[in-house]
Fold this protein.
Amino acid sequence: MNIHHHLDDATIVAYAAGALPAPIAMVVSAHLSFCPHCLARVRKAEAIGSAVMEDEAPVSLSAGCMNNLFERLEAETRSEVTAPALTLSETQEESILPPQVRKALGVPLSEIKWKRIAKGVGMKMIDLGAEDEGKLYLMKIEAGRVLPEHGHGGSEVTLVLSGSYTDKFGQFGPGDIADLDDHEDHQPIVDKGADCICLVASETPAKFKDFLPRLFQPVIGI
Amino acid sequence: MLEVSLRMTRPSRPETGPASNQHLAHLLGLVAENRDKSAFAALFEHFGPRIKGFMMRKGADSELAEDLAQDTMITVWRKAHMYTLDKGSVSTWIFTIARNRRIDWARRLKGVQFSDITELEQPSDDVGADEVVLASQESETVKAAVEKLPADQKQVISMAFMEDMTQQEISQNLGVPLGTVKSRMRLAYQKLSKSLEALQ
Ligand SMILES: [Zn+2]
């Protein structure tokens, strides 16, 4: 995979700190499964984090703690033997979804019921049980379609899974992530030849309780 | 509150001492390959009290802190075969798992666990040799470099790693724009990662 657009350093730090809203963490993690370059940067940030975290003074364990651990380990090793291996059918189409996304989505890509939110634009929300932290969704946009110019209310990241689009920041193809600062307006145009499927996450801005992706507020009239 | 005496008795970690990364990696290897329980117990003796201290610093009481330390070690048992040197030191790897266990507990997402999102099931990261962080000295080096950061950068690093605050929360807490939080994080990361690169 030839990746040109990577994660912002600030996102790398927040991800390694476990301090990203869950939907954004999911898109970042999906990019990392394609991108050894960003994964190496995350490892560095984790090294920074553990140096900060392990600076805490150790606290002695209670007398029974080791025993409890080994009781739990017994239960764990019993289930190791009995747990059936997880099998996922790996069709060509499925392989564009990293496993953690596939698991959260719950249905194969081919069986998604896309919700039409504008002409040539389908959307599929993915429920992480983290509505208060933000939204995670897949978007499928028709080849050649021009999206309305828009900005983003809070942090938003977009990972291209298939197809490509172009905006003023360049061309975004499979594996590329748009991790942009909030206030920049842009107008993506999906490249001709193939539909574009993206995984998008947005953080719920502090000031909005009920949040819809701002991109489509004018389109769906909310 | 943590007692001063604990800080005084904190074992040092000389490079060739019993808790060197090499030794810890050896123990972890025994757990991965032989499912060696005495090696596992030795790892818990080393990391258990440290993870407990970390959890208590984050507001857990003693019982919960031990519970989360055990959770962490059960994950270590389960994933031991995935540790490779390119994931950094054993300590970094285990503390990252501990952090995930804490977040799983703190967030209690209704759908997936936070660690399902972030713990990638990859046996090896497959990073180039030039990007591998030298494990043995990294923690001391990073700590020294964190101390040298300008106060505003040190503050966002500590708020993210120690207080688990999102960028948005840091921005609200400090009363500065989100963009300012991000640029402080960027600058801090760039400086700290340079100090890690200097080890290579
Ligand atoms: Zn990348």
Notes: The longest strand of chain A covers residues 134-141. The beta strands of chain A are 115-118, 121-125, 134-141, 156-162, 165-167, 170-172, 177-179, 189-190, 196-203. Residues 36-53 of chain A form the longest helix (18 residues). Chain A has two domains: 9-80, 93-220.
